[in-house]
Amino acid sequence: MQGMVMKTEIKEILEAVRDGKVSVDDALLKIKLQPYEDIDFAKVDLHRAVRQGVPEVVYGAGKTAGQIARIMDVMIGNGQEQILITRIDSDCADELNKVHKVTYSRWARVAYYGKKAEIHGVGKILVATGGTSDIPVAEEAAVTAEYFGNEVVRVYDVGVAGLHRLLDHLEDIMSASVIIAVAGMEGALASVIGGLADCPVIAVPTSVGYGAAFEGLTALLSMLNSCAAGVSVVNIDNGFGAGYLAGMINRR
Amino acid sequence: MQGMVMKTEIKEILEAVRDGKVSVDDALLKIKLQPYEDIDFAKVDLHRAVRQGVPEVVYGAGKTAGQIARIMDVMIGNGQEQILITRIDSDCADELNKVHKVTYSRWARVAYYGKKAEIHGVGKILVATGGTSDIPVAEEAAVTAEYFGNEVVRVYDVGVAGLHRLLDHLEDIMSASVIIAVAGMEGALASVIGGLADCPVIAVPTSVGYGAAFEGLTALLSMLNSCAAGVSVVNIDNGFGAGYLAGMINRR
Amino acid sequence: MQGMVMKTEIKEILEAVRDGKVSVDDALLKIKLQPYEDIDFAKVDLHRAVRQGVPEVVYGAGKTAGQIARIMDVMIGNGQEQILITRIDSDCADELNKVHKVTYSRWARVAYYGKKAEIHGVGKILVATGGTSDIPVAEEAAVTAEYFGNEVVRVYDVGVAGLHRLLDHLEDIMSASVIIAVAGMEGALASVIGGLADCPVIAVPTSVGYGAAFEGLTALLSMLNSCAAGVSVVNIDNGFGAGYLAGMINRR
Amino acid sequence: MQGMVMKTEIKEILEAVRDGKVSVDDALLKIKLQPYEDIDFAKVDLHRAVRQGVPEVVYGAGKTAGQIARIMDVMIGNGQEQILITRIDSDCADELNKVHKVTYSRWARVAYYGKKAEIHGVGKILVATGGTSDIPVAEEAAVTAEYFGNEVVRVYDVGVAGLHRLLDHLEDIMSASVIIAVAGMEGALASVIGGLADCPVIAVPTSVGYGAAFEGLTALLSMLNSCAAGVSVVNIDNGFGAGYLAGMINRR
Amino acid sequence: MQGMVMKTEIKEILEAVRDGKVSVDDALLKIKLQPYEDIDFAKVDLHRAVRQGVPEVVYGAGKTAGQIARIMDVMIGNGQEQILITRIDSDCADELNKVHKVTYSRWARVAYYGKKAEIHGVGKILVATGGTSDIPVAEEAAVTAEYFGNEVVRVYDVGVAGLHRLLDHLEDIMSASVIIAVAGMEGALASVIGGLADCPVIAVPTSVGYGAAFEGLTALLSMLNSCAAGVSVVNIDNGFGAGYLAGMINRR
Amino acid sequence: MQGMVMKTEIKEILEAVRDGKVSVDDALLKIKLQPYEDIDFAKVDLHRAVRQGVPEVVYGAGKTAGQIARIMDVMIGNGQEQILITRIDSDCADELNKVHKVTYSRWARVAYYGKKAEIHGVGKILVATGGTSDIPVAEEAAVTAEYFGNEVVRVYDVGVAGLHRLLDHLEDIMSASVIIAVAGMEGALASVIGGLADCPVIAVPTSVGYGAAFEGLTALLSMLNSCAAGVSVVNIDNGFGAGYLAGMINRR
Amino acid sequence: MQGMVMKTEIKEILEAVRDGKVSVDDALLKIKLQPYEDIDFAKVDLHRAVRQGVPEVVYGAGKTAGQIARIMDVMIGNGQEQILITRIDSDCADELNKVHKVTYSRWARVAYYGKKAEIHGVGKILVATGGTSDIPVAEEAAVTAEYFGNEVVRVYDVGVAGLHRLLDHLEDIMSASVIIAVAGMEGALASVIGGLADCPVIAVPTSVGYGAAFEGLTALLSMLNSCAAGVSVVNIDNGFGAGYLAGMINRR
Amino acid sequence: MQGMVMKTEIKEILEAVRDGKVSVDDALLKIKLQPYEDIDFAKVDLHRAVRQGVPEVVYGAGKTAGQIARIMDVMIGNGQEQILITRIDSDCADELNKVHKVTYSRWARVAYYGKKAEIHGVGKILVATGGTSDIPVAEEAAVTAEYFGNEVVRVYDVGVAGLHRLLDHLEDIMSASVIIAVAGMEGALASVIGGLADCPVIAVPTSVGYGAAFEGLTALLSMLNSCAAGVSVVNIDNGFGAGYLAGMINRR
Predict the structure, then answer these.
(1) Chain A contacts of H252, Cβ < 8 Å?
(2) Vertex C244, ends C238 and C247: CA angle to 5°?
(3) Percentages of chain G per state (helix, strand, coil), in multiples of 5
């Protein structure tokens, strides 16, 4: 990052200037070198591609296929080999496919360019849902986690009103490295799983439900009040955020 | 009730008038006969005492010991033999005791005058709490239910984060006639019990918790969204309402 | 339920193992025998069909006719003879009818397969609405209650602003076994009925109204604060939940 | 009012200037003449005293006895003979009494200086409450209405859960000129009275209740959604506003 | 009303029975005579038509032209000569016109059958709006008030941000009998008018605005907190309620 | 303004009357002279055109092209040479163009008639956005500010999650005269910019985001709580308001 | 600031290193030089004192007199000559006075050390309040603005319900450079002033009011929806923020 | 856990029964063996002590010193050697010390019995706060994390309004294993840190702030909407939850 070049980098540059290896103007230029590219409607970050070798992510909602394609152009042109695009519908993915070859996951509404990362996460990430309507959000989480190199176990439709279905997966729950609990309505799944598991639980409230579910607000509040320790919460329907964070934790 | 005397009663009175057994003025008086007594600050209902033989209830919050005593005077003077007073502190109960002998339950903040009703409920009412802080509300429910003639089983501190503690009472849950699930925080207890039991579950959200518990609002919303069928909800901290309703159901 | 086989069942199985009547593997299998079937997008519960002989329920909202048909396939294949499908529109019901013969109630947006249960409830369930717009929710409750074997009395459009219309049904109200009070706007119907009746009242707030009705929130809050004892509340527009619970209470 | 002298007044002044009856400076002065007096912490309105002969009102909350006394000094010094002070406790009233003789109503937390206005309202104002805890707000309304020259009928503790108590006052309700319906909790009283009465109903939500009563919010929302025509609402606990408005309507 | 026949009526009937002028069964029948007619989806009130000679009102929202026509059939068949239908679009009004001749006000979305009432209100009702977008709600109020026999003065687009436009109508404001202040956004119009006028002000918040206007909630809260005495509030966009209430007040 | 003619103006008129230079009726007429024109659905303000020589603004939302054209007719007919129309779509702008020649900015959804004002603001107004989805609101602000004669610097897509992109514009931030910070989601941009800049920061929350973004409410609350001094907030998505206010400040 | 040393500074340092005027380590040290001092519980910013010569501000709420004194020690020790301390009560100020001589403004709950800044603002800042209870917040704003070198005009108790009191200050309003409008309850003052003034208006909602005032929320929302252009809003009761921002604008 | 004994355990027990090694009753008993002890007011979990060798936690809020001591008695009596007690004040800790020797951290309001766990976490946990008022919550997190065997780095008072203070700790941020970001008001700290760090960030909203901070709600919502990936959120003021979860993640 140019604006806050870390101290070590500053020191290196200073030493290079002192030693006459780098001119003042070149040094300044080096510091100014922008790790993003400014296109019409966006500033495309390139540093992850360049420095970390990890996939770059494009949030597709509200962007046209044309805009996404143009962002991908810049990224690919800068050497990025893996790009994940979230929140895009199948029409947009089809459109995109004409320009850059992507793999599309209909349920997760996610497309990716390039190969998935090799599995390098230490353990397994378990993705559980309370009902069938929560699956799209769960798939966004699962596909994201897989794309970033994690093994994912899916346990869907195990809401607490039918506790036997959940308990039937007790071994999966107890052996998981990270758990993503996806639920709408009253969101009790997070607390019950949080009480059974001994690993971090990322709770994802969904907008599933009606009436006093208030578009996911109830599940959100419920999960924040979980009586089980080890539970934290992301935004309503934020499958990507949960999948990305789970991968981060699993990498430790 | 005078204002809405039922049709059969009207017919009887009319026939009595026609047959000369009752004068017009007496008939009118009969209809006007008030089933409550108007004292300074309250209209004391007497019809339950008179007609139904069940205990009368006084909501003590915001009333002085003197006011409660005066209401009791009227009731007792009209033949009422059993009175339940809710939401009173021990000082008020002590004060009351100087006038009318009452039994006080410190945890439930409930006092009663006269004998408890004979147990006449068909089955058992199970009162469960998520944590220890929910116990005062649960006791208000339990004492109320007992006072109205029901057998009560207490299962406290069985929150869903320690599912084994709850499942250990599976037999109690499955054999209950009605269940009162009392919980604050995320209120998941109601859903889990609702999924296990095959009887009506009355959920009582409590104001236990902090932050995003919002004084019981989260538990309330969560319980209203219970994914288990057979669950209904009463107001936050409304132990009396739950106990009374449970007794009503258990009487069927 | 496998995961939480009740103690008596465990004891029976243990005794059978000890007595050599059941092999260890068979015993384990027996315990493992899953009372649900896992299909692509759902885990279909079968235990009610098998054990309790009561109708199974499918929540239709958000499911395609194809998905519902497939869930019904599994249920019927496992011997289930009665299935209730809620929240489906007439097109979906027509589609369903091509595969499995169902009876559709347009107003209630409910379909059922197989015969209604015989009337076995003890008393009558009264379903009342404040206005005409509340009728769809009321019908969902009424059809559900009927389907589960209860006699239902409908008293519609008896909002408290025209008290005479409500009081004209005083006898129905006073002789009911359970009452379902369905109302939007200010939801006062529940309190007034709760004050007149001597049986449990299940209040169903509806999303009927505009402005400060806030999609049913006002009716919900109002009903939770009912000054009448014996009233409990279910989610906004949750006719099914009320009908099912009313049946449960009426069965006692 | 100086800043917006009405057109007729402007015309009169112009004509007086033209006719030489008033100098330009005097005319300007006349227009500038301030109908309020600016004291340290307040601008004391005097125009009502001067022009309309009606009592002036001081909102006592948050003011010391000394400040109220000083405001009264200015008013009385300008010829005001009747002053109503709302929201003051008895200590403050005692303090005030040492300076200006006032009559204090403990329940209403209202004091007044000078004589009450002669009864000049056309009809009667009925003030009804749902419970006994609503009485202080009701008394603020009643005392205000009386002070401004209206006859008031009090009907307290007639909540809709005991409909017979309300219906027993049907004649009072039907013969009232204006009705003030004061209720907390679910606030259903306003709708029921609104359905019975044929006069304007001013609904006053109170902060009475607990849990989901949300300090009067539920009663407020409920009253705004009243299904009865002719009902309007004032702020939570605003007894003065209701009493003042009722008097205004009764004067027509 | 049968269920709550007033005492005087009861007395008259009793005397008639005693005097042999009316048989018991006829008396009972008389009391039972229902002042409403029960049609499929609604209970059509007839008592206003019969007793009070005032127009009847049909709330059109959510009803088909066919349903409205049928309700009108019943009313007209019972002698009702004036019917107001609110919240109907022009297509529905056209449809209605084929059955019963109605006059339609496009802006107010209101239709009426029969003649408007003669002007019998004492004074004038002033209807003011903050902006042009508030006009439909204001027209619903104005047309309603006119229909019930009141003279209406319209003062539109006089929001407080252009105070001169409002003050230019000072004479209208000061001579009005009742004022209806219709405004969205911050709803300040009600307070400013309330401070200028000496008559009851009915504030109608509208859902006009965006962002933190929250569909009228901000205007609603603002109006409830009006610092001017004499202001009361009805539901968001409730033009009919305001117009009806204003007429009620103007009739005194 | 007629209704509140300032004192100096009153004095001048009075002197003219006294001196016989103006008749009483003419004086009154002069005072009455309306600085707005009343057309069917709106009161078109003309005083800015006449007195201040600044552009007039028409809020286009909810108005037809025909209505806007008619308002423009009145304004142009009264000598107004510059008119800004906000919140109109391109179809409406096309329609308008047939009557009055306007320049349309698609992204900002803003059209203007006449020339932009000359740049007369002292410094530069910086408009920054957190993401690309915030750009339409930012453009509404930028085009407005430019139209009122300010130089605008756009810095888009500099959300705090990529701090280097923001810090890269540190010089722009530090040299700005006023900054408009436009952001949805958590709205942190305003605080970070507020901490860096030494000029007034106008924060504009946008409805960008999903779930717990609550249509801009979260960004709004966040911005109001900014820990940086010098930050104030306008309504959600109110680009015009921010642009207009920024111009006002820049003019000082 | 070390972490984001501006480019020009970096260039200067680089040139100095190249020219041998500064060693690499000294250059790094220079960059690292911290413009704040870290004491136990706080990081005391010193850069304003050093670089800008303007007063430093300490937010006193929640800090003991001892902690504030210690922060002042650090500041004064670093050459700071003017310090403003907000939100402190008189006891705390007395305590402080024993260590550092401060001037205390009881109404504003503000203390300052050192001399007020010379008046250097261009115009006058007008501070207006709706009522007398808003004065403490207004004084916090006024004293802050004065302290930072601005002339302040106070116009208190000019709420819109008594418009004449506000209009009487029309000249002050129209000649102000910036206006701070402080109001609770419905907060209409901001809109009315915004419509009269031609300068930026900073609206400060206060927590004054009761019931549906919701501790300032209603005033806040109302002000955000102001129909007048040029109005922006700060947090509830944030007098300091308004005063500081007003000074910033007045300095332009 | 009896109710959900895992399959492998069941199989082992079954085999032991079959082989005659365990009687049926003993087997049942074994399954029933309760891993908690039921005391009067609580069910004390013992399984962590027994099985996992990790410290047990007691939530002290709302419990008397006596109750806490009794819970500790049971735990210590069952071999627990480390107990953490959260949310207790110093008086309670003093009281506790008379029975069981505990170490008390005044700022964190946390006490612990026994030795802290050895440091076994892989990396460092960084705990950052926006201001000084957030420190108590941060300390609860820090002490908890340390107690569970993690190295903790504290970086307090680095709110985003003074970005240089935060950036000065860039190396700490970039080398942390997990970060706990504690902030009230607008909670922007989480987003900024989330954008700088490449490790999981646990955001803890605090109730610090006033007005529209709404007791932490604004910070909570803001953090949930963080535009930075890798951020999740716990309940308002839930320092313990964050510290515990951070330890869990750091252990991977």
Answers:
(1) 122-123, 177, 249-250, 252
(2) 140
(3) 45, 20, 35
Element (H, E) at H174: helix H170-175
3-state secondary structure of D22: coil
Crossing angle of the two packed helices D135-147 and D239-251, in degrees rounded to 10: 40
Strands F178-183 and F124-129: parallel
Tell me the pairing of strands F42-45 and F36-39: antiparallel
Residue pointed to by tokens 């009493």: D243
Task: Report percent pLDDT > 90 for chain B.
Answer: 60
Per-residue pLDDT tens digits of chain E, which is 252 residues long? 233 444 556 667 777 877 888 777 777 656 554 466 777 677 776 655 444 456 789 999 989 999 999 999 998 988 888 999 999 999 999 999 999 999 999 999 999 999 888 887 779 999 999 999 999 999 999 999 999 999 999 999 999 888 878 887 888 998 899 999 999 999 999 999 999 898 999 999 999 999 999 999 999 999 999 989 999 999 999 999 999 999 999 986
Cross-chain Cβ contact C3/A162 below 8 Å: no
**Residue for token digits 């069917």?**
F40
C157:E1 CB<8 A = no
* Token pair recorded at residue C64: 């395609």
Q: Check: CB of residue E206 under 8 Å from CB of residue E127.
A: no
Q: What are phi and psi of F35, to 5 degrees?
A: -85, 20
Contact F26, F53 (CB under 8 A): no
Distance from CA of B170 to the nearest CA of D (A): 31
Distance CA F249, CA F177 (A): 8
> Which one of A225-229, B244-248, F50-54, H28-32 scores highest in mean pLDDT?
B244-248
Asked whether F173 and F163 are in contact (CB, 8 A), the reply is: no
Write the CB contacts of F171 (distance below 8 Å, at least 6 apart in sequence). Answer: G6, G7
Task: Tokens for B132, please give them.
Answer: 């220890």
Residue in chain E closest to D251 (alpha carbons) equals E252
Is E135 in Cβ contact with F236 (below 8 Å)? Answer: no
H or E segment to which residue C184 belongs: none
Pick from A243-252, B173-182, D54-63: least confident: D54-63
- End-to-end Cα spacing for chain E: 24
CA D6 vs CA A132, D13, E155: distances in Å: 69, 11, 18
Contacts of D211 in chain B (CB under 8 A): 205, 207, 215-216, 220, 235-238
* Tokens (6 digits) for G36: 């704040």
Chain H residues with CB under 8 Å of B133 CB are: 62
Q: How far apart are CA D96 and CA D68, in angstroms?
A: 8
Report the SS3 class of residue F74: helix
User: Is the pTM here over 0.95, yes or no?
Assistant: no
Q: Could you tell me the two tokens for C33?
A: 């025998």
Whether E and C touch (3+ CB pairs < 8 Å), yes or no: yes
Q: Do the Cβ atoms of C88 and C68 come closer than 8 Å?
A: yes
**Within 13 Å, how many C-alpha atoms sit on residue E108's CB side?**
23
Q: Model confidence at H220, in pLDDT bands (50, 70, 90)?
A: very high
CB-nearest partner of C160 from D130, D188, D218: D188
* Separation of alpha carbons G93 and C165, rounded Å: 68
CB–CB contact A237 F211 (8 Å): yes
pLDDT exceeds 60 at position H152: yes
- What letter does residue D230 receive in the DSSP assignment? T
CB within 8 Å: C234 and B229: no
Q: Do A244 and H230 touch (CB under 8 A)?
A: yes
Instruction: Please give the residue of chain C at the shortest CA–CA distance from D183.
Output: C227
- Residue H92's contacts (CB-CB under 8 Å, 6 or more residues apart) are H60, H64, H65, H68
Task: Count the Cβ atoms, other than its own, within 10 Å of residue D39.
Answer: 15
